[in-house]
Recover the amino acids of this structure.
């Protein structure tokens, strides 16, 4: 290997190991811009534990339709995305949602403390409406009645007020005839959330404020243009499931199919409203067919025992390589530690939710990481016995072992892909987690075998004389 190239590789590996070690030992990574003291990176790197290790809520959702075969896979996937974003908006993190079959969605909420609220949010019909509120702003949270779906004239931009009807008074102290009670106002629905095409949050004109910009679908642009042109200064309230979430006024005619909702929004408020606008309706109605609270079947004690088992396994592998392959084995052990640091860093940065099968996949990949080194070192010893120089033996040992390394790891990756497809299709999150962790471990082990181990070998062994230390190489 070219000495200059080897030096560059050493620098790259040192930087990668240092970053991996920093990530592995941190719960949060923050990098500041020294020029303006703003945050360039602010990332939580806590370990995400799965439902079996942490406990939480498990829910099975099903499409609320007569024929499951009529549900499109793309619509079900969109519904899954909307539900996941809706749950995230409640502050529930580390959610796992995946489609299962033609019309089911399996949802897992590790560590959830308010299962009733989560289930209620998933069961919402989430009808988003823009209603004509006249001249008076509506208080956020107010429950209203609308004319959406009540008549065929709801698409016209005109206000509708229900006629008054007489109802008997329920006051016990009243001795006269019951006085009529005014019927509640029925607000006209100008358009629904189905008319929205895109929704985004932008910085407002005033420092520290934000606004929500939106675009409409082509078939709704003219309707909205006609309405806003004739209702400047009026209130166009935004209602989600008959509850007011915003009450902006029409400041100008919106004729181009795009507009913005302005106000004294903070970043959190603007993002919350944008989520409600963007994910206000489901392409496929769903119902909760099963929901259960799951206790941590394993818990911290079992996680600790699993990690202990992994550490013992790693230690045994390190000792075996050192005793059997001597100096090259010790170098392989350094590469194995590098592999473990990089793998754990990726688990935290992606992030990957660790379940017990996932931990098992990672521990299994430790043994497979050594597999490539064993093949390389056996070829190295054969080349040394054939009279090659040490540098030649390293390069030839790697190149001749590579076909076997490539084929064995490729077959493992194919198996991981099959397991992933199976787990994703049938909602088996544990199978899916196992396959992801094992595949990630195989990819990282290929990197350590191809780059790290070979670089370490050249760095340490190129300056040694084989004839003076043959026993260092197990000869």
């Amino acid at each position: 290997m070219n000495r200059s190239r080897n030096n560059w590789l050493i620098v790259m590996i040192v930087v990668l190991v240092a970053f991996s070690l920093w990530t592995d030992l941190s719960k949060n990574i923050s990098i500041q811009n020294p020029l303006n003291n703003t945050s360039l990176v602010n990332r939580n790197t806590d370990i995400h534990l799965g439902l079996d290790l942490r406990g939480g809520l498990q829910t099975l959702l099903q499409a609320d339709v007569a024929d499951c075969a009529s549900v499109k896979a793309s619509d079900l996937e969109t519904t899954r995305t909307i539900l996941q974003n809706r749950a995230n908006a409640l502050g529930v993190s580390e959610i796992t949602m995946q489609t299962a079959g033609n019309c089911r969605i399996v949802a897992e909420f590790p560590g959830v403390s308010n299962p009733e609220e989560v289930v209620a949010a998933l069961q919402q019909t989430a009808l988003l409406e823009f209603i004509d509120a006249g001249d008076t702003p509506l208080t956020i949270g107010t429950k209203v009645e609308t004319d959406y779906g009540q008549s065929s004239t709801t698409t016209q931009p005109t206000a509708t007020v229900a006629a008054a009807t007489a109802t008997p008074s329920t006051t016990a102290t009243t001795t006269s005839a019951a006085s009529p009670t005014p019927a509640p106002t029925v607000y006209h629905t100008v358009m629904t959330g189905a008319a929205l095409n895109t929704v985004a949050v932008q910085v407002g004109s005033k420092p520290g404020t934000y606004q929500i910009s939106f675009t409409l679908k082509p078939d709704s642009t003219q309707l909205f243009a006609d309405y806003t042109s004739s209702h400047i200064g009026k209130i166009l309230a935004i209602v989600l499931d008959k509850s007011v979430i915003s009450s902006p006024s029409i400041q100008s005619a919106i004729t181009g199919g795009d507009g913005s909702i302005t106000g004294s929004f903070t970043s959190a408020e603007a993002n919350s409203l944008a989520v409600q606008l963007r994910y206000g309706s489901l392409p496929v109605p769903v119902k909760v067919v099963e929901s259960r609270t799951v206790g941590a079947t394993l818990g911290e004690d079992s996680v600790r025992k699993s990690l202990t088992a992994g550490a013992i396994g790693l230690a045994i592998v390190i000792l075996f390589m050192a005793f059997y392959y001597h100096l090259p084995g010790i170098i392989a052990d350094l590469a194995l530690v590098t592999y473990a640091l990089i793998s754990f860093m990726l688990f935290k940065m992606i992030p990957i939710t660790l379940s017990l099968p996932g931990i098992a996949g990672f521990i299994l990949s430790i043994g497979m990481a050594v597999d490539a080194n064993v093949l390389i070192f056996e070829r190295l010893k054969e080349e040394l016995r054939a009279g090659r120089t040490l540098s030649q033996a390293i390069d030839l040992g790697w190149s001749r072992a590579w076909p076997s390394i490539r084929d064995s790891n490729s077959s493992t990756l194919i198996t991981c892909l099959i397991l992933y497809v199976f787990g994703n299709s049938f909602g088996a999150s544990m199978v899916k987690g196992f396959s992801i962790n094992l595949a990630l471990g195989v990819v990282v082990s290929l990197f350590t075998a191809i780059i790290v181990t070979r670089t370490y070998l050249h760095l340490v062994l190129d300056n040694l004389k084989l004839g003076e230390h043959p026993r260092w190489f197990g000869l």
About this structure: Residues 56-125+289-294 form a domain with the Alpha-Beta Plaits fold (CATH 3.30.70.3400). Confidence is low (pLDDT under 50) at residues 151-177. Residues 299-349 form the longest helix (51 residues).
